[in-house]
Design goal:
Elements: H1 3-14, H2 34-67, E1 69-73, E2 76-79, H3 83-90, H4 92-122, H5 129-138, H6 145-155, H7 162-169, H8 181-209, H9 213-221, H10 226-237, H11 239-254, H12 258-263, H13 275-285, H14 289-317
């Protein structure tokens, strides 16, 4: 055997460079394309796509169809283009409802975000009372919206309600949310604060529990006060959680409907007629599906634009 033959034989036996022609047939088979495997994964989300199409996209397209028509009957329609959109923007009651809703959302954020953070900071961190505090704080969130409205409708009654009777007879305030627009506004605001501040508190509490303990130990060694600890350790760590809380509370408060509708019905007068209540009156009360469709699309765009502005401002401020 020559030297070259020994080299080839040694490479085949000793694990060196192997001749491709001498390799097994299995190793020469083409490997499966990972892109084809990834394309199969779309089959798993196909039910979700179909569900969203039937529950969101198709109804949205129906609303768009109604918004450009004047519907007299199922078989009698007239194409009007963007006339309903122009009318929705020009109507004074629509602009007033928009300002009213925006003011309510701003007041909700100014009250619920600081209050929720304060409750989260005051909640216990360990022991038996942690479970008790979490259950008590979460109780208002378990009550359905229409039940919350019914509870406060009775509770705030000046004649038979415990809250209304206490305000009138103990504090000597002439309170009546059915007659006074300011009382109705305050009632809706307090009701929303009672119902949804626990959500902010639970989110902030989860954010506080995620802060590593060595941060607090270092602050204690440095002699930092409680306010300094909150300002420089807890609050910066809550930035992401508070961004979510602000977006959730803004969207929900800007689209509020059930609670004020049950308590005041939008009154007295138009004092608590928010955009959602006005939209329901146009769509259901008057059955003007054309103006209601245009109104709802404008409402949808306003919510999306404001949420984008909020999210962009909050994320950029955290950089």
């Amino acid at each position: 055997m020559t030297t070259d033959q020994r080299t080839v034989a040694g490479s085949q036996v000793g694990g060196g460079v192997v001749d491709p022609a001498a390799a097994p047939a299995e190793s020469r088979e083409p490997r499966p394309d990972p892109r084809r495997r990834a394309n199969r994964a779309w089959l798993l989300v196909l039910p979700v796509v179909v569900s969203v199409a039937f529950t969101a996209v198709i109804p949205l397209m129906t609303v768009v169809n109604f918004s450009v028509q004047d519907v007299f009957s199922p078989d009698d329609r007239v194409f009007v283009g963007l006339d309903w959109f122009y009318e929705a923007v020009r109507r004074p009651e629509n602009r007033a409802a928009f300002v009213r809703t925006l003011l309510f959302s701003a007041q909700v954020l100014l009250v619920e975000i600081p209050l929720g953070v304060a409750i989260a900071v005051a909640m216990p961190r360990r022991g038996f009372w942690v479970s008790v505090a979490l259950v008590l704080v979460a109780l208002p969130l378990l009550i359905p919206w229409n039940v919350v409205g019914t509870i406060w409708q009775i509770f705030a009654r000046p004649d038979i309600g415990l809250g209304g009777w206490t305000v009138n007879n103990v504090f000597g305030v002439g309170y009546n949310y059915t007659l006074d627009s300011t009382d109705a506004w305050v009632t809706i605001l307090v009701m929303d604060v009672w119902h949804w501040t626990p959500l902010v508190a639970l989110l902030a509490y989860a954010g506080l529990r995620s802060i590593p303990q060595p941060y607090f130990q270092a602050a204690q060694i440095d002699g930092a006060s409680a306010w300094a600890t909150f300002r420089h350790i807890q609050l910066p760590r809550l930035r992401g959680v508070l961004t979510i809380a602000i977006l959730l509370r803004f969207m929900d408060s800007f689209m509020i409907y059930t609670e004020p509708f049950v308590v005041t019905g939008g009154g007295p007068g138009n004092a608590t007629t928010f955009l959602s209540i006005l939209l329901s009156k146009i769509a259901v009360g008057q059955f003007d599906v054309g103006p209601a469709g245009a109104f709802s699309l404008i409402y949808f765009l306003i919510v999306q634009i404001l949420c984008y502005v909020f999210f962009t401002a909050l994320t950029r401020s955290g950089r």
